[in-house]
Structure formats: structure tokens, C-alpha cells
Amino acid sequence: MRIFVTGGTGLLGNNILRQLTESGHELTSLVRGQPDPAVFAGINTDFVSGDLLDQEVIDDAVSRC
User: Fold this and answer.
1) CA distances to 1, 20, 27, 44 from 23, in Å
2) For 20-64, how does the pLDDT look when each residue is reduced to its tens digit (9 = 90+)?
3) Helix, strand or coil for residue 65?
4) What is the pTM of this model?
5) Distance CA 36, CA 21 (A)
6) Could you identify which of 14, 25, 59, 61 might form a hypothetical disulfide with 20, taking C-beta atoms 3.0 to 4.6 angstroms apart as the criterion?
7) Distance between CA atoms of residues 65 and 59, nearest Å
8) CA dihedral 40, 21, 53, 57 (to 10 degrees)
9) What are all long-range contacts of 46-55, with beta carbons under 8 Å and residues at least 24 apart?
10) Torsion of CA 15, 20, 22, 23, to 10 degrees
């Protein structure tokens, strides 16, 4: 299943991404800037740049999940 996750750079969101990766899910993560590779090491995710206030970015990302 493809899952869209916000807050992946935070402690809780990052742990959720890791558990979803281990479960074999395909992930899309919303990031506000250039993601730090160390934060996402071992996580298989596509990145979408934007924020929660950008409805067009959110709609596009959700439509692919």
C-alpha cells in the first residue's frame, strides 16, 4: 500500500516511517525543505516538497496514494 506521511522529520513521524518501511509499504513523505539523508537513512520514501497549508501539493500527493 502507498501511504502519505507528514511530519517524517520528527521523532514520532520518523519512527512511523521506519515501521511502515519494515512492513513493506511504499511511502510518500511531505518535507518543507531539502531532507537530511541521515534522518531518512533506511527509509524507502518519495519526497514531496511543501507544507500542510499548500492544498495543491497535499491533494496531488494524496491522489498518488
Assistant:
1) 10, 5, 11, 11
2) 999 999 999 999 988 889 999 999 999 999 999 999 999 999 998
3) coil
4) 0.85
5) 18
6) 25
7) 10
8) 100
9) 52/6
10) 150
